[in-house]
Write a structure and sequence with these properties.
With 403 residues, the chain is an alpha/beta fold. The protein has 12 helices and 12 strands.
């Protein structure tokens, strides 16, 4: 077990905060340049967050800065550490990969900061890096062991066969996945995701995370994928993947999931394709928790993008503890208020204040960043306790060492 960080290291790392505020993005960009010179390491990472969007270096720069700022209060980083560990498990990151990241990070600090990156500074960051690395390795080992020991569990990549697909809207399609070996699957926690290793002609191996949109089962998983305008994998899934296709899948992962032990009311709040983990939660509550009152509030553009409308309606009609409300931002003339949707416009905090048990419920949120910025802060300002606001977003987070 790693010992505590030395006082000298804490002092030196905190002293680099101004430099990271000014040069952090340059450091992380250089770090990835160095690391991706090794194709075996490059292929561990989700390249959509690098080459396609370029968002991961920004997220990593923010995370490195947060680590430096909180180096003397690491408890504040515990939620981020769990999120990183879950992502690493999905990507099958192993202890032997960590030295490559250390070499790239320290080399990037030296390259960007030049003479300011003294031997003492580099030694302090080396100690700080390995302290966090050992915390992550320990947590990731525990998750790997848990997955391998659980009924239907596995470690690494397992072949799944596409057992059918359903077009849910003009932009979202669902895929049913069953193990090629005919065995059981690990029961996921409602809200978790699967990580996929995708081999496409002319591309390096690609990694993608897709939320599981079905209740836990020992037989199969369902994912519901939005076609992104420039998404290599999402367009391939929509256009090329057919029944019988084999996909490589890692075990379910993620720290965003329904607390099934809580008796409190639940509000599920989603925007766009953020409905996917909510469907897993909603199906779970419908089948196993008839005593829990749940409100599902969903916002989407209009009827062309409204996925799983009839499924949600059938669940709310069949279960007295479930109510569902839908907002269309721009209803079409053929979209019927009271049948296809309930309200025109955007969901608002004011509407939630007036129509949900704000002081009693657990809120689960999933959607694009502007959606989450509005409601995570808005609900907190409206009086919802922070421990009752749970959220998930798609894309890279403010994660140190995240792929």
């Amino acid at each position: 077990m790693t010992g505590p960080l030395s006082d000298a290291t804490i002092h030196l790392v905190k002293a680099t905060v101004p430099a990271l505020q000014e040069h952090g993005l340059a450091v992380t960009r250089r770090m990835y340049e160095r690391m991706f010179q090794n194709p075996d390491i490059r292929d561990l990472f989700n390249q959509s967050h690098h080459g396609e969007t370029g968002s991961q270096p920004k997220a990593l720069a923010a995370a490195v800065l947060a680590y430096a700022q909180n180096i003397d209060n690491l408890g504040a980083l515990a939620p981020a550490v769990e999120r990183i560990a879950q992502k690493h498990v999905g990507l099958n990151i192993l202890p032997e990969h960590y030295p490559h990241v250390a070499e790239a990070l320290l080399g990037a600090i030296r390259d960007v900061l030049g003479a300011a990156a003294t031997d003492e500074i580099l030694a302090a960051w080396g100690e700080a890096y390995w302290f966090l690395a050992h915390v992550l390795i320990g947590r990731e080992t525990a998750i790997y062991d848990s997955h391998a020991a659980a009924p239907g569990g596995w470690q690494g990549w397992r072949n799944f066969r596409v057992d059918g697909s359903t077009r849910e809207s003009e932009i979202i399609t669902s895929f049913i996945l069953r193990p090629e070996d005919g065995g059981r699957v690990l029961r996921h926690q409602p809200g978790q995701y699967l990580t996929f290793w995708v081999d496409m002609p002319g591309q390096h191996p690609l990694k993608r995370n897709y939320s599981i949109s079905s209740a836990p089962s020992e037989q199969a998983y369902r994912i519901s994928v939005k076609r992104e305008p420039h998404g290599l994998v999402s367009n391939w899934l929509h256009d090329q993947v057919r029944e019988g296709q084999i996909l490589k899948v890692a075990p379910p992962a993620g720290e965003f999931f329904l607390n099934e032990e809580s008796p409190r009311p639940v509000v599920l709040l989603s925007g766009g394709v953020g409905l996917t983990p909510m469907m897993s939660m909603l199906e779970t509550i419908a089948s196993q928790h008839s005593n829990v009152q749940v409100q599902y509030v969903h916002g989407t553009l209009n009827g062309t993008t409204h996925a799983m409308k009839e499924h949600v309606r059938s669940l709310s009609q069949a279960h007295r503890n479930i109510t569902a409300t839908t907002f269309y931002v721009e209803p079409r003339p053929e979209d019927r208020q009271g049948q296809d949707y309930d309200h025109a416009g955007l969901i608002s905090v004011e509407w939630l204040q007036a129509n949900t048990p704000l002081g009693e419920a657990d809120f689960y949120l999933c959607g694009p960043r502007p959606f989450l910025r509005t409601f995570v802060s808005g609900l907190a300002l409206a009086g919802v306790r922070s421990e009752r606001i749970h959220y998930e977003f798609f894309g890279p987070a403010d994660e140190l060492l995240a792929a």
